[in-house]
Amino acid sequence: MQRLRIGLIGWGTMGAAFGELVQDGPLPISLAAIAVRDPARARAIPMPDGVDVVRPDEALDVDVVVELAGGVEGPLTWARATLERGTPYVTANKALLATHGGELAGLARTNGAALLASASVGGGTPMIEMTTHLAATGRIERLRGAVNATTTYILSAMGEGRSYDEALAAAQAAGYAEADPSLDVDGRDAAQKLAILASVAWGRWRPEADVSTTGIVGLEVQPGETVRLVADATPDRLRVAPIPVDPEDPLARVTGVENLLEITMRDGSIFRVSGPGAGGPACVTAVYADVARLVAGERPILFRSAS
Ligand SMILES: NC(=O)c1ccc[n+]([C@@H]2O[C@H](COP(=O)([O-])OP(=O)(O)OC[C@H]3O[C@@H](n4cnc5c(N)ncnc54)[C@H](OP(=O)(O)O)[C@@H]3O)[C@@H](O)[C@H]2O)c1
User: Fold this and answer.
1) Cβ pair 152, 229 in contact under 8 A
2) Residues forming the active site
3) Options 3.30.420.140, 3.30.360.10, 3.20.20.70, 1.10.530.10; which CATH number does 137-276 get?
4) Shortest CA distance to 102 belongs to which of 209, 210, 237, 207?
5) Distance from the CA of 239 to the CA of which of 62, 137, 190, 212 falls in 20 to 30 A?
6) Is the whole model's pTM more than 0.85, yes or no?
C-alpha cells in the first residue's frame, strides 16, 4: 500500500506527540513536511531529520494536512486552501470549527475532501466518535457533559472550601490553568466543544454563538457543595453554565484531566464515555484514528454545513 504523505502544521504538545506516533505507529503514513512558527526554537522533542521544515502554506501539497497549531485566522486560510484542492484536513482545533465549521464542511463537500476533528472535543476520549455513531439513527435527545478540566479543577477546590481566587491560583500551579485562563473560566472552551458535539449530534453545523454561556468567574460554592461547569444541549437549546450536581451524578465524580459526556437517546437509554481531555500522547490517539479512516479510503465530513 502506498504511504500517505502528511503535511503537519504544529510541533507543540500535540504536533510532537503526533509526529512520534507517525514514526512508531502501524499506519502506512509518513511526514512529508512540518510547519512551525519558529523553526530555530529549541524543542523538547526534536523534529525528525530529513523532513522539510516549511511555512504552513508550503505544507499543503500532500495527501493529508494535519493542523495542530491552534488559533483561527491562519488555520482558516490553510483549511480553505487544503479543502479547495480536495485534500483531507484533520485538526484538533475547536475554535476553528466552532466559528467557521459550516463553511469548511461546505467546502469539503463541494470538493470531495474529508474534514475530521476527533481530538477537538474530549482530547483522546472518543466523544465525537460516540456521538457520530449514535447520531446515525437520528435519535439523540440530549447531550450533557463536563468537557473542561480547568473549571472542574477549580470548582472541585471551591467545594473543598477554597475561594475562587485561591482555587484558580492552585489550578495554575498544578498546570490545569493557563496564565490567561479566560477561555476556560468564561466557559468559551466548553461552549465551542458543545457547539461541535451538537453539530455532530443533529447533523447541521451550530456555531459557538448559538450556545448560551455562563462562566465561573466570581461564583461562590459552599463547602461540601459539588458544582460542575455543565455543557448541556437539546436540538433547541445549547447551554454551558455552572450547575450544582448531586454527589451520585457521574459528573460529580469527574476529576483531574478527565472529561465525561453523557448522551441520552429518545428511548431513554443513556450512553457515557470518559477519559483524559488533555495531554499530547493521550489526545493524539484521536488524530491518528482520524488519519486511519483516511488510510482506509473513507472521506468523512464531521457534520453538514449550516442550512
Ligand atoms: N494540548 C492539548 O492537550 C490539546 C488537546 C486537545 C486539542 N488541542 C488543540 O490542539 C491544537 C494545538 O495545541 P497544542 O497544545 O499542541 O499547542 P502548542 O503546544 O502551543 O503548539 C502549537 C504549535 O503550532 C505552531 N504554530 C502556531 N501558530 C503557527 C503559525 N501561525 N504558523 C506556523 N506554526 C504555528 C507552533 O510553532 P512554534 O513551536 O514555532 O511556536 C507550535 O509548534 C490547538 O488547536 C488545541 O486547542 C490541544
Assistant:
1) yes
2) 193
3) 3.30.360.10
4) 207
5) 137
6) yes
